[in-house]
Design a protein that fits this description.
This protein is an alpha+beta fold and 176 residues long. It has a single domain, classed as 3-Layer(aba) Sandwich (Aminopeptidase). The protein is 27% helix and 35% strand. The protein is built from five helices and eight strands, in the order ββαααβββαβαββ. It has an eight-stranded mixed β-sheet with strand order 1-2-3-4-5-6-8-7, sandwiched between helices. Helix 1 packs across helix 3. It is globular.
Length: 176
């Protein structure tokens, strides 16, 4: 996906971005705390494997997020095709860019683009302890629709519930 928001450029992922992603957030424990499969103190090669093992072009649409003002890569977004009408989204933002509204801005733009492409719903999950992610999702109009008890394990070994959020883009109405 390639598009722009007011403050960001969303650019298609290419493997050459991996080293920049690694420097930007790949070694930051706070960023990786709740990411599934993330391991603390990864080497660049391990991080490369982590990214490439989750990237399957037939299912994933991965993009990096570049801040317009500084040209710095501040995160990435992964859209995973669940079925013909829905995708799951994973959003990662560099810690230095937290609290500035980038997550909300990017998610709203992604929803706008996907709506034009006919997508029905976007889904996202987060750990119950990840309050910041919950705020970002809710600010981007996602609704909490389910809770899976004890399904998440963070880097500290804490078990948490997995929260499932949905952003219904196209509402389907059925006549009864």
């Amino acid at each position: 996906m390639e598009c722009t928001t007011r403050r960001c450029i969303i650019k298609n992922f290419i493997p050459e971005y991996i080293s920049v992603m690694y420097e930007a957030w790949g070694t930051n424990r706070d960023v990786g705390m709740y990411l599934l499969g993330y391991k603390e103190n990864m080497s660049l090669d391990e991080f490369k494997s982590y990214i490439l093992n989750t990237y399957k072009p037939e299912y994933n649409d991965i993009s990096v997020i570049q801040e317009k003002e500084t040209n710095k890569i501040i995160g990435y977004i992964d859209l995973y095709k669940e079925d013909s009408r829905s995708k799951s989204v994973v959003l990662v933002i560099h810690k230095d860019s937290w609290g500035h509204g980038y997550g909300k801005e990017v998610l709203k733009k992604v929803a706008e683009v996907e709506s034009k492409n006919g997508l029905g719903s976007l889904y996202a999950t987060c750990d119950e302890h990840n309050i910041a992610a919950q705020h970002v999702l809710e600010a981007a109009d996602f609704e909490l629709i389910d809770n899976i008890p004890g399904d998440r394990l963070d880097l500290d070994g804490n078990v948490g519930d997995e929260f499932l959020y949905e952003l219904e883009i196209i509402r389907v109405h059925y006549d009864t």
